[in-house]
Amino acid sequence: MKKAFKYSVIAATLAFASILHIEAADAMDNIEKPAMEKAIADPNAMMMKKDTSMEKKDMAMDKMENKNAMMMKAENNQTPFSTEAFQSAQASEKPFLIAFHKKGCPLCAKQQQALNAVYKQAAFADTKVLVVSYDNDTESLKKFGVGMQGTLILYKGDKEISRSSGLTTAAEIEKQIHG
In what helix (H) or strand (E) does residue 99 lie, and over which residues does it extend? Predict the structure, then answer.
């Protein structure tokens, strides 16, 4: 049985080598000898090790998604972008931001944390942020000419005051709001 498995590993390697147009000798040299010996000795152990490795990767991905969800948690100053919310913010004549955030974007998560820190300061407590879904709202991306997630556009009334991309600290965002 072990010998048959060894030959099937070699045959598969040679077949793959022919697909990639590399020399058979080079392909055989690239097989990790200890890994091949372990696979020949106990193929089931290698499969179990692979399954455990995949479980660890899945757990790490879940943990990262939970962390991103927590980092993306918005304060009360934020509202999902809509035409009505945009018109209402313009009518207020107060400065407001439009943020273009993408789900799972590390830069957007950092920017969200910075925005949350800005809201906690008295000077910015009333600053509204309309959040455009970079994943789903292609109409707004075109309307505002945005080609990068993590973009912030500052408006006052119906006038665009400034725009930036990639700001990830409260100090940078404060500077954009104050000019």
Answer: strand 95-101
Helices (H), the chain: 2-20, 24-29, 33-41, 43-71, 83-91, 106-119, 138-144, 170-178
If you ran DSSP here, which 8-state letter would residue 123 be given? G
Record the pTM: 0.60
Contact 179, 161 (CB under 8 A): yes
| Pairwise CA distance, residues 164 & 176, whole Å | 8
Measured N-to-C along each axis, helices 33-41 and 2-20 cross at an angle, to the nearest 10 degrees, of 140
Dump pLDDT digits (tens) for 129-152: 999 999 999 999 999 999 999 999
Confidence at residue 150, expressed as pLDDT on a 0 to 100 scale = 96
Distance between CA 62 and CA 168 in Å, rounded?
24
Here the tokens at position 149 are 């997630």
List b or e across 28-58, with b for residues whose CB sees 16 or more CB atoms inside 10 angstroms.
Answer: eeeeeeeebeebbeeeeeeeeeeeeeeeeee
